[in-house]
Structures are given as C-alpha cells and as structure tokens.
Design goal:
With about 325 residues, this protein is of the alpha+beta class. The chain is built from 11 helices and 4 strands, in the order H-H-H-E-H-E-H-E-H-E-H-H-H-H-H. The radius of gyration is 33 Å and the shape is elongated. It starts with a helix and ends with a helix. About 5% of the residues have low confidence.
C-alpha cells in the first residue's frame, strides 16, 4: 500500500507543470503571452524598434506612392496615343460600317470614331481661334474624312503601335495613316526611363531598410542577452526560446507597417489640402490617388516579414546550442 502511494506521488512530481497561458490556447498561448510580457517589460526598446520600422517603411511607401501616381499619369498620357486613318472621300454609311468592323477586328483596337468633313473643318477653326479670317472661303470638301482609332493599353508602346499601323495599311480604302511616330517613341523612352529609375531606387531602398531594421532588432536582442543565456542554462530548447522573440518581432513589424501607412495617409491628405496654397496645383484635376489595396497589403506583409526575419537572424548570434 505504501509503495503504491509513493509511486503515485512520484508520477505526479514527474508531470510537466502547466505553463501560464496554456489554459487559454495551449503552448502557443503561452508564447503569445510571453511575447506581450516582453513588450511591456522593455517598452523603450520596443518603441525604438517599432519607430525604426515605421520610418523605414514610410520612406518605402512614400516612394511607392509617388511611383504609383507617376504610372497613373503615364497611363493617362498614353491615352493620347491615337492612330488616324484618312480617306480621300466621304464614306457612305455602309462603307463606314464595313470598314469600322475590319478595324475593330484588328488586335489592339479599343475604339473607332469617324470624323466627317464638316467636323474636320470645325476642329480646324477651333485650332485657329482668333484667326478665323484665314479660313474664309475654305469649303469642307478640301478636307479629308478620317477614322480616329484609340488603342488598348497593351498596344500603346512603340512596337505595339507600329505593328498595329502595319496591319492597318493592309486594309483597302485608306489613303494615309498618321500616328505621331516621334511623339510615341519619345513618350515610351521616357516611360521606360521612369520605370528603370523606380526599379533601381526601389531596390536600393529595400536593401537599406532590411539592413537598418535587422541591425536595430539585433541591438534590442543584444540588450537582453542575459535573459537568453539564463533560459539556455535552465534547459530551455532553442525553439522554446526563439518563438516568443519571433512573435514579438512579428508584432513590432505589423505595428510599424500600420503606423507608416497611417502617417503616409496623413501626409497625402495634408498635401492635397495645402498644395494649392504654395504651388500651381489643383488637386481636383490632378487625379492623384492613394496606394491601392494590393500595395497596402504588400507593405503590411513586408513589415511583418521584416520583424520576423530580423528577429530570426539576430537570434542565431546568441542561440547556437
């Protein structure tokens, strides 16, 4: 009887003690609770880390905001890429419909608009506003009719326009084609330059942000190296030590990314409200927009990844066994 009681007491003493927080989520609940305790106990260190992540991501997101609006402006400018096909005579309704269907069947066609001679003369007079006397005696019959063809976005670069014009020349009945070849070439050269510059600057900023955030997190973990050493000495496994710090880094990254987006939105709204007072700028007609949802999601994920990876790489220096 006594031996059975001793065995029962021995079995109870060998049971693993319940960790604080396990009753609310198992071991993972303990890790989250431990991470939150670490944040409360090291407020200054965490504020510095979150502030660094916020500033770094604010710079990157500000660059993204400028780049996105430049791309939007480039898309608006690219809508001016237009091909005009001229005819020697006025087309009948049936001829217009037949030729329009052939043009619409060409890859890259977005919209086709027929301009008759009367409308062409009206446009000509508008361009010479104030000098209408130069057109006295000019009859609509001297002007050609035309199709104004708008292209899809995928065909607005130099190669796409040239390919479309080559296909258009094969249609019978068209006497001349104009599309501002030099303007299209210069516009696409400028657009490619902007994208290349954005790629180079973006890559540099990302590398700089990773370096700064990683070293900041490394300093915060270095300040708590004694805690890591004590946990190792009492027999805690490497994974058991790392997980609360990794969760802490993830929280720091998420908080930093959200703060950077809030600051960016505040700066964006302040710029829209005050830009007209110090520069020739009309926010209503500028068509500026904030970051789209997919970019916001990328920034949040980038902040979480920075915090997690920064903590993971920094812990390797202090936890080797």
């Amino acid at each position: 009887m006594n031996s059975w009681k001793k065995k029962k007491v021995s079995n109870q003493s060998n049971k693993r003690p319940v960790l604080a927080g396990q009753v609310f989520g198992g071991r993972f609940g303990y890790f989250i609770n431990r991470a939150l305790i670490n944040i409360r106990q090291n407020v200054f260190v965490n504020v510095v880390t979150i502030g660094t992540i916020t500033l770094a991501l604010l710079i990157v997101s500000l660059f993204l905001l400028v780049f996105v609006n430049l791309e939007n402006a480039a898309d608006n400018w690219s809508e001016r890429v237009q091909v005009t096909a001229y005819f020697d005579r006025e087309l009948s309704g049936q001829e217009q419909a037949s030729l329009r269907n052939k043009v619409m069947a060409l890859p890259g066609t977005a919209q086709v608009r027929y301009v008759n001679r009367d409308e062409a003369l009206k446009r000509f007079k508008n361009r010479l506003k104030g000098q209408e006397t130069l057109l006295e005696g000019v009859l609509p019959e001297v002007l050609p009719t035309s199709f104004e063809i708008s292209l899809k976005k995928s065909h607005r670069d130099s190669r796409g326009v040239e390919g479309f014009v080559a296909s258009l020349r094969q249609l019978a009945g068209i006497s001349e084609i104009q599309y501002g070849e030099e303007w299209v070439r210069r516009f696409n050269t400028f657009l490619n330059f902007v994208r290349m510059l954005g790629l180079l600057l973006g890559s540099f900023l990302i590398i700089a942000v990773i370096f700064i955030v990683s070293n900041t997190i490394k300093l915060t973990i270095y300040a708590r190296r004694d805690e890591l050493e004590i946990m190792s000495l009492v027999g805690a496994s490497r994974l058991f030590i790392k997980i609360p710090f990794l969760i802490e880094g993830t929280i720091q990254g998420a908080a930093g990314s959200l703060l950077s987006l809030m600051l960016l939105f505040g700066l964006f709204e302040a710029f829209l409200q005050n830009a007209s007072s110090f520069m020739s700028f009309n926010s209503a007609t500028a068509n500026l927009s904030f970051l789209p949802l997919e970019y916001i999601g990328i920034i949040v994920l980038a902040g979480i990844s920075l915090g997690f990876i920064g903590s993971l790489t920094s812990l390797k220096r202090f936890i080797t066994t």
